[in-house]
Specification:
The chain contains four helices and five strands. Helices cover 55% and strands 9% of the residues. The relative contact order is 0.20. Strands 1-2-3 form a three-stranded antiparallel sheet, with no helix packed on it. The protein is rod-shaped and about 110 Å long. A hairpin with a 2-residue loop joins strand 4 and strand 5. The chain starts with a helix and ends in a 36-residue tail after the last helix. The chain is mainly alpha-helical. It has one domain. It is a multi-pass membrane protein. It is found in: Endomembrane system. One of its GO terms (cellular component) is endomembrane system. Belongs to the DESIGUAL family.
Length: 199
């Protein structure tokens, strides 16, 4: 495997894993319905650490996505020509799907951040005899974390496909590959003529 693919994989995965870890922590610290207080006709929502964690997780995921995409675009224009047509289409499909998942993940983070914003109040909803305070249901931070990891993996796959050498372009062992700019002599030397003594 190309060393540039390994280096990019490590960097992007570090960002994506850090984002996911923050997302999972945000999930455990998000607002619970028991923490909402009702006072004077409004619902009082306390500040939660999930707010800041969600912002940091979304920023790390965006950084991972941008790094993978910039590297992928540079892979398209590499001098060796990169992956052939069908593989290039596969790489582009992976990159597009990666961006779709990343956008959905960031939107989930944003939704979680809005509902865990600094201490705020919202109007209560009356349902017959009951008074309800809305809160965010579902594991939005966990979903965002998992989607972010999947987006990072797809971004790395797209880059790895673009960095593949075309068939027949593999380097030869034992230094048999000509150096860059070196012209390889393909002509065979003329046969040696052996002189015979005259009789």
């Amino acid at each position: 495997m190309d060393t540039s693919v390994i280096a990019l994989s490590v960097v992007v995965l570090l960002f994506a894993v850090a984002s996911a870890v923050l997302g999972f922590i945000a999930e455990t610290t998000k607002l619970n319905p028991d923490e909402i207080k009702y006072s004077g006709g409004v619902c009082v929502y306390p500040a939660k650490p999930a707010y800041a964690l969600g912002i940091c997780a979304a920023a790390l995921l965006a950084a991972a996505q941008i790094i993978a995409s910039v590297a992928g675009v540079s892979g398209c224009f590499k001098p060796q020509g990169g992956a052939p047509g069908p593989k290039r289409k596969k790489a582009v499909s992976s990159a597009v799907l990666s961006w779709i998942l990343a956008v959905v993940a960031v939107a989930s983070y944003a939704q979680g951040v809005v509902w865990n914003d600094a201490a705020t109040t919202r109007d209560a909803v009356t349902d017959g005899w009951f008074i309800k305070c809305h809160y965010l249901k579902g594991a939005v931070f966990r979903r965002a974390a998992l989607l972010g990891l999947a987006a990072a993996v797809l971004g790395i796959c797209a880059y790895a496909i673009l960095r593949e050498r075309p068939a027949g372009d593999e380097p030869k062992p034992d230094g048999q590959q000509p150096a860059v700019g070196e012209v390889q002599n393909t002509r065979t030397p003329p046969p040696q003529v052996q002189a015979h003594p005259q009789v």
